[in-house]
Amino acid sequence: MFSRAMTGKYAVPAYNFNNMEQLQAIITGCIRSNSPVILQVSGSARNYIGAGFLPHLAAAARSMVEEARSAIPVALHLDHGNSFELAKSCIEAGFSSVMIDASHHSFEENAKLSREVVEYAHDNDVTVEAELGVLAGIEDEVVAEKSSYTRPEEVEKFLEMTGVDSLAISIGTSHGAHKFKLKPGEEPPPLKFDILEEIERRVPGFPIVLHGASSVMAKHIEQINRFGGKMENTAGIPEEQLRRAAALAVCKVNIDSDGRLAMTAAIRQIFAEKPSEFDPRKYLGPARDELTEMIIHKNTQVLGSAGRY
Description:
Low-confidence stretches: none
Order of helices and strands: HEHEHHEHEHEEEHEEHEHEHEHH
Radius of gyration: 19 Å
Strand order of the largest sheet: 1-2-3-4-5-8-10-12
């Protein structure tokens, strides 16, 4: 996936899911847009779904692709794994890829734990993502008040010490739906493309990952607020900046909050307009449809991954 994305100057979408409807929407959207996809679950999402249920959901996703006679590749990835034990458990459960996030430790401890996971994963034909630098924000297990930009001069040494297959970097993205609090007329701060370009210069052809890359789409924020929500003055990463990153060394872009917002917006509208509704199919179904359309938009208009298979 990464090799083709690097050659084609696009990014593979990595969508997080927590339930069946989200997974169905992701797969349907990627089939309809002929896009490769990485399905992601965090440790807490895995606990919510149930470790025993997850392999069956993944198998069902694969069956959806086969039944549609689609050629898109699908990977299952652990997002922000925080321990060797969790990574090992996911590898043994059949994950394609795992992330070990030790970015909150010292450089040496980060490299040591990442290397430990790499040695076990590679013995089992599983790829490993690590993180260098810290993203601000809150999302599942990830909590950080301040960002710490990735230092390009540390990247080469880290890759040599660990042998990881891809690297998440910090260039100004952040986790969660409340990335930036903006006043009317203000724009989100630009990503630090100088850091990305310097990393690409130092390790050409190496797969770089962007976390916290939801755009916090204005239409969903407006819809949520119109139907009783309260998400004011929030903004995410502008789509044009993500397009630029995808044309450089970034070949995997993580999107979680945008999926949550899309489904929440649809559900809020239904509950407001049909207060007597109690059938989960009648609100989760439309929420699934809204997320499917968002997936197609991201693949087609933002990441450039549509039509690649």
